[in-house]
Amino acid sequence: MHVLIIGAAGMVGRKLCERITRDGGIGGASAGALDRLTLVDVIEPARPEGFSGQVTTQALDIADPASAVRMIEGRPDVIFHLAAIVSGEAELDFDKGYAINLDGTRQLFDAIRAAHDVEGYFPRVVFTSSIAVFGAPFPDRIADDFFSTPRTSYGAQKAMGELLLSDYSRKGLFDGIAIRLPTICIRPGTPNKAASGFFSNILREPLVGREAVLPVSEDVRHWHASPRAAVGFLLHAATMDLSGLEQRRALSMPGLSATVGEQIEALRRVAGDKAVRLIRREPDPAIVDIVAGWPRDFEPKRALELGFTADASFDEIIRIHIEDELGGSLPG
C-alpha cells in the first residue's frame, strides 16, 4: 500500500503518520501492508522513525498547479488531503484562502482525473472538511440533512471542496469521502491563527503552568473532538465501504458538545483550581463575532451508523492530551 498525506507537517498529519507507521498500514492486514509513504506540506515533513518502507518527503505549495502532478506521481492508493490554511487566516487573507483551500483542492482532483483518464488510476481520497460549512441560524442540534450556508470564507472554501469531491466521485474519477471535523481540542504545540484556537489554549497552557486568554464568554457552546479521535476518523474513512453513501459523500463526524464553562470545569476536575486561575478573561469582538456563526451541537446519525466514534467527555479529552503530549502526568 502506498499512502499520500498532504498536510503531513501539521498536527493531525503528523499524528496520522505516526499511527499508520506504528500499525504498519491502515485497515488491518486485509488492506495490505504499508510499504510506501509520501509526505507533503509547505515545509518538508519529518521522516517517520522506525519505518522500513520507502518514504518520500516534499515541500510543495499546493496553490501551484505543478504541485498536484508531483504529489500523485507515485500513484498512491490512499490520499489524505489535510492541507489548508486555518479559519482566521483565510478570513484575513482572502486571496490566499481561495488559492490554497479551493484552488489547491481542485488542482489535486484534476491531476487525479488526468491520471484516471490515461491509465484508470482510481485512489481513495479522504478530504478533511469542517463544521464551518454550516452557518447560523442553527437548530438546537444539526442533523445530517441541515443545509450548508457558511458565514466565513474558510467555510465557503470547504463547502466547495465537498461539492467538487462528490461530483468527481460521481463521475467515477476517484473514490472520495469528505469528513467534517469538529474543532480539534486539545491541539498540542503553540497557538496558531485559527479563530478556534482559544478552545485549546485555555486548557493546554494552564496544564503546564502558563497563562491563557479567553476571548469569549463561558456560555459559548461548541463541537469538539480530540486529535486521537480525528486520526481514528481518517483511518475509518480510508478503509470503509463507501457504497452506502451514494452521492452524499460528506459526513459530519461525531464529537462532544460543551460550553467553555464546561471545559473549564473539566480542567478543574483534572488539574485543580490552580490551573483554572491561569485563565484570563479578555473579550475580543472579532473572535466573538466569528464564533457566533459556528455550530454548537450535532446529531451525526449517518457517521455513527457507519462506525465512526468520538470522545465520551471533556475529562477524557484532557486526559488524552496529558497521555499523548505530557508523558502521562502533569508537570510538577
From TrEMBL:
<keyword id="KW-0119">Carbohydrate metabolism</keyword>
<protein>
    <submittedName>
        <fullName>SDR family oxidoreductase</fullName>
    </submittedName>
</protein>
<dbReference type="InterPro" id="IPR036291">
    <property type="entry name" value="NAD(P)-bd_dom_sf"/>
</dbReference>
<keyword id="KW-0614">Plasmid</keyword>
<dbReference type="Pfam" id="PF01370">
    <property type="entry name" value="Epimerase"/>
</dbReference>
<dbReference type="InterPro" id="IPR050005">
    <property type="entry name" value="DenD"/>
</dbReference>
<dbReference type="InterPro" id="IPR001509">
    <property type="entry name" value="Epimerase_deHydtase"/>
</dbReference>
<feature type="domain" description="NAD-dependent epimerase/dehydratase">
    <location>
        <begin position="3"/>
        <end position="210"/>
    </location>
</feature>
<keyword id="KW-0521">NADP</keyword>
<dbReference type="GO" id="GO:0016491">
    <property type="term" value="F:oxidoreductase activity"/>
</dbReference>
